[in-house]
Amino acid sequence: MEELDLLKKAWKKENHSFEQVSEKEIYKMLHKKSSSIVKWILIISILEIILWSGIGILFNTDDAIKSLHAEDFLIYLKILTYVNYLVVGGFIYLFYKNYTKISTITSTKQLMSDILKTRKTVQNYVWYNLSMIFFCTLLGFAIGFLYNPDMSALKEKMAHDQSHWILIKVILILGFALVILISAFWLFYRLLYGILLRKLNANYKELKKIDL
After folding, report:
1. How many angstroms separate the CA atoms of 12 and 188, rounded?
2. Could you tell me the pTM of the whole model?
3. Does the keyword Transmembrane helix apply (predicted)?
4. How do residues 123-166 score in pLDDT, each as one tens digit?
């Protein structure tokens, strides 16, 4: 924000007539920066869905399910996949809509409102993805536990263990693995979108000063 800082310093030194010009220049600069940030959010979200789709093609879950003879789950997994693509597609549309709105020259108040809407959309998108990761991990563990032949010995031990200690240990291990996985993805999204959101928030604060 070096250009903005220089402009603000010059604004304070000059007279009132220049103040109005400077205010417009600051608004234009913040508008341009905000538009660029939202554009990058849109681009990253599109690249992200392409990445996950590519990983899904490389690691074919259908083959893994068939190898476990758990074909009954295939239809549900396909429905879940289509619903996920539909929801993510909806978020991408919202990102595009936010970008087109912010790109249009509007009032300071409208730009501030659009920035808040964009931040909220990104936050909801991240929470949705984290929830899906959590749910899919649990589902994958359940399918593996029920159908993987390697789990037969463990299930027999659990059936004969009256203290249920083995079940508790399995739950603890699963819980720990989920915490590590979700934390890793949360850090990934914080790095991916957090930097852009912080810049967007900084623009919002500067616009708020202008609007006062």
Report:
1. 41
2. 0.79
3. yes
4. 999 999 999 999 988 888 888 777 777 676 666 766 676 656 77
Residue 185's alpha-carbon distances to 20, 151, 188, in angstroms, are 45, 28, 5
Per the prediction, the chain carries an average pLDDT of: 80
Q: What is the pLDDT of residues 53-73, one digit of tens each?
A: 888 777 777 777 777 777 777
The dihedral built from the CA positions of residue 178, 182, 183 and 185, taken in this order, carries a sign that is positive
Alpha-carbon span 29 to 37, nearest angstrom = 12
User: What is d(CA 34, CA 30) in angstroms, rounded to the nearest whole number?
Assistant: 6
